[in-house]
Hints:
The structure is a homodimer.
Chain A: H1 5-23, H2 36-39, H3 43-54, E1 66-71, E2 84-88, H4 90-99, H5 101-125, H6 127-138, H7 142-149, H8 151-169, E3 174-181, E4 184-197, E5 200-204, H9 215-223, E6 228-231, H10 238-253, E7 261-263, H11 273-277, E8 282-288, H12 291-300, E9 305-309, E10 314-318, E11 320-321, H13 324-336, E12 346-352, E13 356-358, E14 361-363, H14 365-379, H15 383-390, H16 396-405, E15 410-413, E16 417-418, E17 428-429, E18 432-437, H17 441-444, E19 452-458, H18 461-475, E20 479-483, H19 487-500, E21 503-506, H20 539-543, E22 546-554
Helix pairs in contact in A: 1-5, 1-8, 3-6, 5-8, 5-10, 6-7, 6-10, 7-8, 8-9, 13-14, 18-19
Amino acid sequence: MSQEHFFQRHQDTLGQALNAINTRSYWAAYPENPSPRAYGETAAADGEAAFNAHLGKAFQLEMPGITGEIAGEVSPYGIEMGVSYPKVDFDQLIPAMKQEVKAWRDAGPDVRAGICLEILERLNKRSFEVAHAVMHTSGQGFMMAFQAGGPHAQDRGLEAVAYGYRAMKEVPENATWTKPQGKHDPLVMNKNFHIVPRGVAVVVGCSTFPTWNTYPGLFASLVTGNPVIVKPHPASVLPAAISVQVAQEVLKEAGFAPHIVSMVADTLDAPVTKELATHKDVKVIDFTGSSFFGNWLERNATQAQVFTEKAGVNTVIIDSVHDIKAVARNLAFTLSLYSGQMCTTTQAIYIPRDGIKTADGQMSFDDVAQALSVATSKFLGDNDRACMVLGAIQAPATVARIKECESLGEVVLASEKREHAQFPNAEVHTPLILKVDASDIETYSEERFGPVSFLIATDSTAHSMELANQVISEKGAITLGVYSTDEEVLDQAEELAMDAKVALSVNLDGGVFVNQSAAYSDFHATGGNPAANASLTDTAFVARRFVVVQSRRHA
Amino acid sequence: MSQEHFFQRHQDTLGQALNAINTRSYWAAYPENPSPRAYGETAAADGEAAFNAHLGKAFQLEMPGITGEIAGEVSPYGIEMGVSYPKVDFDQLIPAMKQEVKAWRDAGPDVRAGICLEILERLNKRSFEVAHAVMHTSGQGFMMAFQAGGPHAQDRGLEAVAYGYRAMKEVPENATWTKPQGKHDPLVMNKNFHIVPRGVAVVVGCSTFPTWNTYPGLFASLVTGNPVIVKPHPASVLPAAISVQVAQEVLKEAGFAPHIVSMVADTLDAPVTKELATHKDVKVIDFTGSSFFGNWLERNATQAQVFTEKAGVNTVIIDSVHDIKAVARNLAFTLSLYSGQMCTTTQAIYIPRDGIKTADGQMSFDDVAQALSVATSKFLGDNDRACMVLGAIQAPATVARIKECESLGEVVLASEKREHAQFPNAEVHTPLILKVDASDIETYSEERFGPVSFLIATDSTAHSMELANQVISEKGAITLGVYSTDEEVLDQAEELAMDAKVALSVNLDGGVFVNQSAAYSDFHATGGNPAANASLTDTAFVARRFVVVQSRRHA
C-alpha cells in the first residue's frame, strides 16, 4: 500500500475538519448516537463481546523492551478485570522510538495526517468496545462512556490533527529568495523549510477520561511527527491499550514501525511517570490530572514542552433568572453527570444572600437552594436513570471525600448511596450540595473532586463576581456559568471571563450544559488560569510540538 | 483621529507582510540603503543632529512611577554619552499598565496592528538617529548600525506583527453553532471568541543588538494585546529609549495611554531584571543574552511565558570546495563583521586533518587554515574598511577574552588592535583564529563571545558532523554552514541540521553570509536546541502571547 493511501482516503474528512476549526461552528466526524443505523446492527453486541474477550487476558502490544507483565485495574462497577499489559523498560523503548523519528518525520504532514485519520476511523468502529473499557475503568455510565470515550474523544483527536496540520502547512516547504542588487544581478537563494518534530512525546492519561483527555495530545504530537508513548493512569489502562493497538495496526499497514505509538503502563504501587517525564529524550508531555503533579511536571520536566490540564474550581453565578425550574433542571444534570467527576463540573455556585430576581418576582437564597435540591432529587428519582447518569465513583478517595465534606457547610441535599441493578458492587453516590457563606472561602475555593458543590451566600452579584474572579485567578477553572436577565450584568460577566481567562456559558437552561464542550467549536480550558496551561485545541497547543529547520543555498 | 486611521493607512503594507510570511520569499518594507533617495536629502545630517541632541540630556518618557534618573552608558567608540533616563518604580508602573490592558485588548487586532505599523514607520524615519544610538552603545560600525539597528530591525518587528495578526485572525470572532437533534429543533448557540492578552510583557534587551533583538518580542506582545515594558541592557539604553518614545507618541495620538509601552532602565551596579521578570503580573518575557541568565529565567519566571535567545557554538563544516578563495573571503567577512559579536557568528570550523578536496586538487588542513588567515588579513588590510566592518568591542570582558583565548590553541591568525581614525578611544580588534584538535572539545565547545574562532582538525567529514551534532545538541547554535561539492555529504548535512535543529547554509561563497538572516524569509534560531527556546519568527513565537476566551449562549 502506498503511504499516501490513507491521506487520499481521508482527505475530504480532513478538509471538513479544517473548515470546522476555521469557523468553529457545529461539525462532527463521528456519530455520537450509538444506534445500529450509525454503527451497524451487530456493533453493540460485537463491541461488548470484544471487551469481554480482553478480560483475564494478557493484552498484546508490539514494543521493544518488554520485560514482563503488569496488571491492577479495578472496575468501579465491581466486575473482575484481570487484564495484564506489557511491562516495558523505557530505557530500551525510548532509544528504539528515537530511531523511528526520521522515518516518521520524513513521511511528512500529509502521510501522517492520513494515518491519524485512519486510526481515528478504526477507533470509531471500535467505539462500543472502547465504551465498555472506559465504563469499567472510569466508572462512567455506558452512554457517557460511549459518547465521551468514543466519538467525542475521536472528534477531539481529529480536531488536534487539523490544528497540527494547519500549523505545519502554514510553513512553506520551500522558497526562492531573490534580493535585488541595484544594477548587479540579484542574490538568489533556494530555501527549504523542514518540519522537524521535537522528539519522543509522552501523554499522561487520567483515570476518569482515559481517551477524551488522551487523544488531543496523542494526535497533536503524532501528526507533527513525534513518536508517542501513552502513559495511562494505572486505573484506566484498557481504553488506552486498545487505542495504542489500533494505532500500531495502522502504522504497520502503512509500512512504519508499530512502536511509533507505544504504551508504558505502570501501577499505583510502582509509578514511573516522574522518571519517564524527565527522561532526557522526552521532548513533549501532555498531562491531565492533579494540580500538584501538573505543577511538578511544569517545573521539573524542563527538557520538554509541557501541556497540562489540572484541577480548578468551576463556577456558576446566579444573578437573576426567567425560569428557576429550567435553570435548576439544567444545573441538576451538571451536578449529577458522572457524579461530578469531570474537570468541568461546577463546584462553586454564588448566589446573593438576599436572593435573586425571577420572572415570578424575588426569590430567597433558600428558595433557590431548595429549587436546586428538588430538581436534583427529582432528576435522580428514577434509580435506573440515576445510575446511568451518575455512573460509579472511580476512586475510593472520592467516595471518602463525600463523607468528609458533609461537615463543611449546611447540608442542602445529602448524598445517598444507590444500588446499581446490574452491578451490585458499584459505588454509586448522588450529589452532596452544601450551603456556605462567602466568608468560608477556604472551604469552597479548594477543589473537592467528585459530587460535592457549594451554594455560596454573597452580598450581591458584584460580590459574587469579585469572589469568582479571585478564586478562579488563584485556583483556576475551566468553566464559568452565569445566569442573569440583565444585559449589564452579562456584560460584566463577559469582562470577568476575560479577566480570569475562563470560558463563559450564559443562561444555560436547556439541552446544553456548562460542563460539556463540543469539539471544533468550544475551547476546553483557555490555558490562561491555573486550571490548565493549554487549551483543547488552539494553535498554541500544536505550534510548539515541532520546529522549522531551514536550509539555504545559492540557486 | 479614529483609532482605525493607522490601520487603514498601513493595511496594504500589512497585507504584503502577511504575503511575505506565507511565502517566505524576499520582501522588505523598509529600505536598507541609507541613501538620500530612500530617506531624503537631509536625513543623514538630521539624524546625526538628533542623536547629538540627546547627549548629556535627560531623556523624557511618559510613565507613572518615575522616581529619579539613572545613567551609565559608555560608548565603545569612546565619546561622552551622558544621557540619563527615568528611573521607575515598577511597583507603581506595572499596576498602571495593568489598568490599560482592557483598553488595549478591546482595541482589537486591526487597531493594534495599525498602531504597530505606524510606530515602525516613524522608527524607520528616525533610522539615522537610531543608527548613531546603536553604534555608540553596541559598538557596531555605522553601516551595520544603520541596517541591522534600523530597517532590518524594523522588518523583524513587522514580521512579528504579521505573525501575531495572522494567529489572532485565525480565531473567528464569533460563530453560530447549530446541532441537529433529529426530529426536534436543533440546539443553536451563539458564541463569541475573545482574543485576551496574557498581561504585562517584558522585553529584556541585549547590549549588542538593542533594537534588532528587541523589536520582535516588543511587537509580538504589543500586537497581541499586551502592554510592554522594554528593559534595555544598561549598556545600550538609548536605542530602546528612542523606540519607546516613538511608541508612546503614536499611542497618545491614537487616544491610548502612552505607558502601554514603557521602559524600565537599570544599571550594571543595580540590576532589576530578576525582580522585574518574576513580578506576579509579568506574564510574557522575551530575553536575549547569556545562557546562564536565560536558563535562570526559564526556570524561575514560571508565572510567565518565556522566550529566550541565548548563547551557542555556531559552526561551519568544510568538506570540499570548488574555490577556496571564494569560500575564505566569505568566511573572512563572517568572522570580521562586528568583531564576531553576533549571536550568529561562526566559532567552530571543522576541517578534516587530512585536508579537503578542491577543484584544484587536494588541499591540506594547514593550507585551508592559511587561506582563511590570508583572506581575513587581506579583507582587513585597509584600516578604514576594517574599522567600519569590525566596529568596536562592546564590553571590556570581550576585549579581555581575546587575550585569554590566545593560549587555547595554535595561533593561525593573531588578533591586532587597530586605531580608529575618527574615534581614537575605540576598542577595535581583528579576529583571532586558532587551530585545535578534535579532541580539545572542552576548548572549542564553550562559547567564546567575540572575535575568536577555532579551526578544528577532525578525522574526516563524518567525524566533523558527529562532533558538530554533539556540540550543537549540548551547547546550542543558531547557524551551521557546510561546504561540500558532494551531494551525498550535503544530504548528510541536511540530516545533521534537522537532528541538531539548527539552520543550515550551504556553500556560501558570495554575497550571503552564514551570520546574516533576512526577515520574513530566514528563521533566526529554531527554538529546538539550547541556543534559543524560540524562533524569530514562527507561529510558536506569537501563539502563546494571548489566550482565547469564549462565551456562548442560546440564540
